Amino acid sequence: MSSKRRIRVVVAKPGLDSHDRGAKIVARALRDAGMEIIYTGLRQTPEQIVETALQEDVDVIALSILSGAHLALFPRIMDLVKQKELDNILVFAGGIIPKEDIPSLKKIGIAQVFGPGTRTQTLVKFILENVQKRK
Amino acid sequence: MEEKAMEYINKIDDMGGVIPAIENGFLQKEIADSAYKYQKELENKERILVGVNEYTVEEDWVPLKLLRISPDIETEQLAGLQKMKKERNNLKVKKVLEKLHDAADRDANLMPTIIEAVKAYATLGEIVNVLRNVFGEYQELIVI
Known about the structure:
heterodimer, A: about 140 residues, alpha/beta, B: mainly alpha, 7 helices
């Protein structure tokens, strides 16, 4: 038996859009890659997402948003992440996010933003390379 | 194919129809399964989609002129809402919302009371919250 802890990921849908096809595909692909997945379901508030991350002791938060509200919701999520001292969690996002918004999202601590057409293996590789190693 | 379709329909019928099949997550799982399969086929090139995974061109990114809504509009709207709430007949609003609550409780036709509430300047939020209190909210069955 390996004592290595599996990478735990919360896949979350902040805001009001119901487009969960992508989030569910990502959740499955990460699960098939051996990670443990917690999927929040639709219409989550920043508070709910960060609370789930805290309760589930995750290593990664994967945000999926297609409503255009990322500039309103992501800063609130990142504020809460910092407040709860979860800064070691890797946070990345996907969905419909205009290119020109990406720099400001990176500035607040979103590690990467993926758009449509991203291969699921790209996400797996990204997580493996960037997740903080736990002792 | 006809047989396969019938088999599928019978499977859903055996669950008690489409509504139970949604409530037990069967349909959500079928959709998610098919979406994941499709994605994997694209990535493995078992399925070719011109311009997506074959015969693609280097992306030529043109910045779009996006419609950005100024946060000032939100502030203005909120101020207008507060003003309206101050100036309307709040007793009337309270009464019609109680009437709506009662109608929802009795499973009566809600539309006449909703129209009455709108005419009394009840907000959409106030109306929906009454109904939410009576009927509850949609609870998503988490299926991945």
